[in-house]
Amino acid sequence: MQSIKYRLVEFFIVFILIPVSFVLDFQLWIKLAIGLLGFVYVIYILIKVENNRFKIRQHINWMQFWQRTTIKFLAIAIITLLYMYLVDYENLFIVIKSKPFLWMAILFIYSVFSVYPQELLYRTFFFQRYESLFRSNALFVLINATLFSLAHLFFKNTLVMILTFTGGILFALTFKKTKSTLLVSVEHAIYGCWLFTVGMGEMLGFPN
Fold first, then answer.
1. What gap in Å lies between CA 115 and CA 89, rounded to an integer?
2. What angle (nearest 5°) sits at the alpha carbon of residue 44, between those of residues 43 and 49?
3. Which of 40, 39, 21 is nearest to 31 (CA)?
């Protein structure tokens, strides 16, 4: 494992410098190249330095996971339904009503190609690399959630920042409890797919 100084520099570049740079106005292909290089670096570190074998964790308590996730999902569903009904009624369930095949395709693509890489970076990599540097679990979770929200800064939307910060706290707590990338990815996918379904997808970059 690299020195603390190395990991702090890595922390700044991967989780602050790169996300903030995506807000700047330069060509998309450059942003994609930076993102790809950063993700390749993360995978390399997980395999070669952290000795991560990407195996599904044994003895997962699926019953407890589904109980906790269902309670959280119901709360999220009620809040977002009320928001859409009161603030943006014309877009309530708009995609599933008007483009059901697009809705199904996006749910699959999002869950596999967006959610899982995000959780590898912001939970698996982040926890393995930096958790030992913090004495306070609460502070560590808050920083993780803040950086997860920062990664969505390029949307330039306050509500998106609030949603992703809240989601970051939920995902960090789930990962801290389960140490399972699979479980936190499933949870992330459920909430994200619901936001797209209920009609809040456009502000999160989903096509309508």
1. 27
2. 115
3. 21
Structural domain harbouring 171: 4-204
136 three-class SS: coil
Let me know: does 110 contact 132? Beta carbons within 8 Å: no
Check residue 97 and give its pLDDT.
92
Task: Take residue 92 and report the two structure tokens written for it.
Answer: 């309530």
Give the whole-angstrom CA distance, residue 79 versus residue 104: 23
Neighbours of 30 (CB within 10 A): 11
List the one residue out of 173, 68, 52, 195 whose CA is nearest residue 123. 173
Place of tokens 């994200």: 192
Residues of the chain scoring pLDDT < 70: 1
SS (HEC) of 27-55: CHHHHHHHHHHHHHHHHHHHHHHCCCCCC
Distance CA 29, CA 22 (A): 11
- Residue 155 corresponds to which tokens in the numbers above? 């949307």
CB 157 within 8 A of CB 149: no
| This prediction's pTM | 0.94
First to last CA, the chain: 44
Domains held by the chain: number: 1
